[in-house]
Fold:
Amino acid sequence: GPIAGISEAGSLFGQHVWGVLRGFGQVFDVGRVFELLFGGEERTIEDPASVVGGGRIAVQAAQEGAVDVLFEIFAAFNVFVGLLNLLPIPPFDGGHLAVIGVEKVTRRKVDARRLVPITAAVAFFLILYMGSLILLDITKPLPNRFR
Structure:
């Protein structure tokens, strides 16, 4: 029924939020990505992946008829992006909210020129990290988790 469906959806959403929060450390495990890029390590299904790897997993789920897993992948990806966007780091929306909060507490405007180096450093890290994950997803794809 609709009440049970809404309850189940809320519970599943909460599980995804909790899983994403626990998984932030695993996703941004720079040491593991470095080992995979420059070492002879093989990838496991727990390793971080880019959109390319996520797309490959989604295709594998669809080929195996695991439509429920396919929708869970889409939901988890959206929850991840949403929570990542709320981090209080300048290029994200959470960074803008943090600046607004600081301005409200101190009653002074924050000089945007001071935020530019932080924003550039975070953007550079994210671009480099995502590029590394895309390279890994192309050269060392994640193993098929449906076999």
Summary: The chain has a mean pLDDT of 89. The helical segments are 2-27, 30-38, 51-63, 67-85, 93-106, 112-139. Residues 4 and 29 are 38 Å apart (CA to CA).
